[in-house]
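Practice problem: 6-phosphogluconate dehydrogenase
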Amino acid sequence: MRIGMIGLGKMGGNMAERLRRAGHEVVGYDRDPAISDVGSLKELAERLEAPRAVWVMVPAGEPTRATVAELGEILDAGDVIIDGGNSHYIDDQRHAEELKAKNVGFVDVGVSGGVWGLENGYALMAGGDAEHIERLMPIFKALKPEGPDGFVHAGAVGAGHFAKMVHNGIEYGMMQAFAEGWELLEAADVVTDVAGAFKSWRHGTVIRSWLLDLMVRALEEDPELAGLRGYAQDSGEGRWTVQAAVDHAVPLPVITAALYARFASRQDDSPAMKVVAALRNQFGGHAVTSATSGGDGESPSGTAG
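Answer key — structure tokens:
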């Protein structure tokens, strides 16, 4: 299958490569001409056969809105746009409604897998009409991990990003729990091998997980996390998850507290936030702030939590 990929950064570039390895033809566009196959979105559309499929992998918010709007002017009836960034589900529903006038389809896909997805595959949560999902299944199957799991048609337009939003909220809570546990072990005199304690939990325990594996990896690289400043950015999904909880009167004390902990990290150098920063760097390649520098070191609109 031939597909267009807009945005060839850490996630988009790796996804394009995984698709190519699976035998699909990818026409990529990026603002950086050194890595772009075409010079414009119009040229990208001309390189694709109708009905076209174009996957958008740019930062959430205005960059995605502007890209979808431009594609809406270029594409024809029967084409479909896939938003694989971390857009707000309300934006998805608005885009689908606007594109309906031209009979251009819209599918939102929450993507998880970070910088490891090229080799391990990406977990995909899709929202959209069944006919569009079915047409794109060869692409989804190539991107997801091997085996029966890793993909869900979560519902209508907006459902994919809503599911990913909640996923990232859960991720906030899990990382915060590991971070607080690490800080307590470091503060006490009883345990002298903190990194070893975390490593011992990787097998046979109820908290074994990929995040725990990444925690161990981070501690092997820097046992005291001395090279990091206890500052962790939030990419937006945590805030949206908490707001959705308010809208639906659903209590989310753990996720809410984890979000507020990230806010607190920006006031002082928090030991626990060194763990959160390290984990975000491990799974998503997010920028970190060194212990000797100031500022946040990254923008708040990435593609992983």
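Discussion: Residues 164-284 form a domain with the N-(1-d-carboxylethyl)-l-norvaline Dehydrogenase; domain 2 fold (CATH 1.10.1040.10). Students who identified this feature from the tokens alone can consider the problem solved.
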